[in-house]
Amino acid sequence: LGPAPPISVYTFGQPRTGNRSWAQMYQALIPTSFRAVLRNDVVSTIPGPPFYVHGGQEVIMDLGGNVHCNPSFVEKVFRPPRNSVGDHSLERYLFAVQTAFQYRSVPAPGDEVGLDGQGREEPLEQS
After folding, report:
1. Helices marked H in the chain — which ranges?
2. What pLDDT sits at residue 105?
3. Measured between alpha carbons, how far is 13 from 22 in angstroms, rounded to an integer?
4. What is the pTM of this model?
5. How many Cβ atoms from other residues are within 10 Å of residue 95's Cβ?
6. pLDDT in tens, 68-87
7. Burial (0-12, 13-18, 19+ Cβ within 10 Å), 52
8. Closest CA relative to residue 12, chosen from 42, 43, 45, 36
9. How confident is the model at residue 106 (pLDDT cuts 50, 70, 90)?
């Protein structure tokens, strides 16, 4: 049958799922694992440390199409608090992924701004 194909995992809004030993084993077995988190998604912060940790590389996304892979300790300390249940919705994650790959011309659910093509927010025309 030949060698097994490599395994890659992409999760969206994943809560902490295991202890440090689990995370180390997970990373050894699945080295290509990305954990996408919307910038303010509160679910990605529970249950709390030190007993529960994440596995995989963190990828922070926002509704403006910005994507930041594997943030540093300093970037994590100074990011805004994650306190939005609304940012855990599948629709917002889908919108963030789509926006990261193309110019955004429609507002995100609950949002009233668009991007001007340069990454700057501008008000959208009301129809």
Report:
1. 20-29, 73-77, 90-101
2. 52
3. 19
4. 0.71
5. 21
6. 898 998 988 888 889 999 99
7. middle
8. 36
9. low
